[in-house]
Amino acid sequence: MGTLGKAFADAFGLLWNLDPSLVETVALTLQVTLAALVIALLIGVPLGAGVGLARRLPGRWLLVPLIYTGMGLPPVVVGLFTYLILSNQGPLGGLGWLFTPVGMIVAQTIIALPLVVGLTMAAVQGIDPSLPVQMLSLGATRRQVAGVTLLEARVGVTAAVVAAYGAIISEVGAVMLVGGNIEGETRVLTTAIVLETRRGNFALALALGIILLGIAFLTNFAFHRLQVRQGVR
After folding, report:
1. Rounded CA separation 153/162 (Å)
2. Residue 18, class by beta-carbon neighbours within 10 Å (0-12 exposed, 13-18 middle, 19+ buried)?
3. Helical ranges in 54-201 per DSSP H
4. Distance between CA 17 and CA 162 in Å, rounded?
5. Domain map of the chain by residue range?
6. CA–CA distance from 230 to each of 48, 155, 166, 202 (Å)?
7. CATH hierarchy code of domain 2-232
8. pTM (2 decimals)?
9. Phi/psi of residue 114, each to 5°?
10. pLDDT bucket at 233, cuts 50 / 70 / 90
11. C-alpha Rg value of the chain to the nearest Å
């Protein structure tokens, strides 16, 4: 109980004093996770909607299980794959993204993308199948059909956003492998917690964990409120 109490005190002290290293770590955490989320949404929502609407898509019998498999990818495996791709011997090694925030964004995008695609697809499939048919019969384009269908499935799509962000903000294995946990450059809250735990600074590690939980709660609370408002309308 004493350790936990000290952790809360340390967390409050770090926040109250606006510790520069903490601010930098929190800022990088938000930068990496939000960038990965936006990229995953820009790619995953249209892709998930397309697969959900195309009931007779060739190869769908294989594509859908692959999407569901991707939703359960172990983050450390994603980190290893990304590391090999971005290493000097990898196909993208010339970009110099390894051990940089950009490389971390790539890894977290790969983690979030299947979740966005799979949950968006499920949300779209839950819409009345007669709706797209009726819209097409009235002369709507396929893009318009997709837009209206996504609007109807907005609660499920918001759930995809929440799930994807929850997965990447709590992720440590992939960003540790790809980012390297370099102080002032690629250290985020999750990797800082691992580092301080290994050093035996349990109170500080718990303090960082409390701050991470606070950020996760606030962001997910905002997404939840958006979901509730969308569901009411």
Report:
1. 15
2. exposed
3. 60-71, 75-86, 101-125, 130-137, 142-152, 154-169, 173-179, 189-199
4. 31
5. 2-232
6. 20, 6, 20, 41
7. 1.10.3720.10
8. 0.85
9. -60, -35
10. very low
11. 20
